[in-house]
């Protein structure tokens, strides 16, 4: 096939663009799984300790189960890469994952507490089995969020928009649950005649019987929206440069592929850093200890600070998308993680100064639900926390659309279309880090504050508990962001580089559609200067 013929196809597949509703709806899949991120990962340790009376076993098991995912994730990724059904490659995994998680959450939060305390071995066994089943379902659905982007769009101007719609979906899932559960929890608090809290709502099984079905309904609704969003693109003609006829990748080849894909390696480090910062800094127990124990009024501080965080995040969502479109996703991630890093140095300094004494000028204070007048400390904390939270919340999920870039790079590098294994490898990092976060929370409270169980509203203040909060709310996120900035320094997939890669992939795909073999196309076009003029023009826009 001549170069002219390769280009004479009318530049058929140079850019795969999504419709606005597709860009808006498909990211709801991440919102659907983030419902469970809150419902399980933020509360399962508290539930296991307080309701099932498993002590630290629940926190440790979260990490153990995620390590076991090192086996299941690549297997599920390989299954996805090899899947082709009447309803596509990705939608079956969304449906199966949603069903598995719904059933396992009901079994965990509703059924397990009915096992009597006299049968504690059955509680341990039931907890492990049900949690493992949930992890499988979580892998099924989360991996689609990463892998499905490759068929949705490869337009460098559209792909960054996934971040903002993904964040909207996350807020609809994670945000709704983060706001709803603490509110419902107050309805189940038990007080004595003097009005002193004696049993936290988090320690009552009735709370979990309510939040489990509510979470399931929210997640299923978001899953349905996501399925609608990807339906038209979940077809073989959008599967890589070889379409539905491409060669299957052997499982034994995956290690070599990841070893050779340097951008993916660095993105996994950056993703782990962003996820660890988000998982620990927004952990329910950490926030309860910060606002309820160190600063003395959880009910008046938690909700206003959560709302302020989301308000500050809005402009950073818009800024990050604009930066990504102009300079690439690497530049955007680096810029706003740096902003978060600087601001949280200020948060760290303010937390060190915090005085838990009632009425102190060195603590947060809002004229709401028993709080006091706003002071200078509150203004400084709101500014440092708000700007820092807004910046890192806007970047926390930014590595997700960057997985699609790494998958497209792999197609460019080797000709292989393996979004499933790329997505599940990244999902594995997500799970390991988020589960490590829960174990770190439990261990830091144990080491710094001597607590054998996670703190609740009734836990008294101590200097060690304040140190634990400072470590988890500030120092660990700062270290995680430092790792992210280091990883991005050598990340080669800039905005300009991705345009070149997409142009080469498009030229190869058109040539293969016109009858050229994959090997011939791979050898004929390796750099952008070798492409026909119309493809070079696309790379230069």
What's the rounded overall pLDDT mean?
Answer: 84
CATH first level of the largest domain = Mainly Alpha
Estimated share of beta-strand residues: under 5%
Looking at CATH, the homologous superfamily of the largest domain is MFS general substrate transporter like domains
* Principal-axes shape call: globular
Task: Work out the radius of gyration.
Answer: 24 Å
* CATH topology value of the largest domain: Growth Hormone, Chain: A
What order do the SSEs take from the amino end to the carboxyl end, as H and E?
HHHHHHHHHEEHHHHHHHHHHHHH
Number of E strands: 2
Q: What low-confidence regions span 5 or more consecutive residues with pLDDT below 50?
A: 1-11
Total domains: 2
Largest sheet: 2 strands, antiparallel
Give the termini distance in whole angstroms: 27 Å
Strand ordering within the main sheet: 1-2
Structural class: mainly alpha
Count of DSSP H/I helices: 22
Helical coverage, percent range: over 70%
The CATH level-2 architecture of the largest domain is identified as Up-down Bundle
Summarize the structure in short.
With about 550 residues, this protein is mostly helical. It contains 22 helices and two strands. A two-stranded antiparallel ribbon has the order 1-2.
Describe the structure.
With 541 residues, the chain is mainly alpha-helical. The chain has two domains: 3-249 and 261-499, MFS general substrate transporter like domains (Growth Hormone, Chain: A), CATH 1.20.1250.20; 500-540, no CATH class. The chain is 71% helix and 1% strand. The chain is built from 22 helices and two strands. Strands 1-2 form a two-stranded antiparallel sheet. It is globular and about 80 Å long. Mean pLDDT is 84; it is low at 1-11. Its main location: membrane. The chain crosses the membrane at residues 93-115, 121-140, 161-181, 210-231, 267-294, 300-321, 333-354, 374-394, 432-452, 464-488. Keywords: Cell membrane, Membrane, Transmembrane, Transmembrane helix. This is MFS transporter. It is a multi-pass membrane protein.
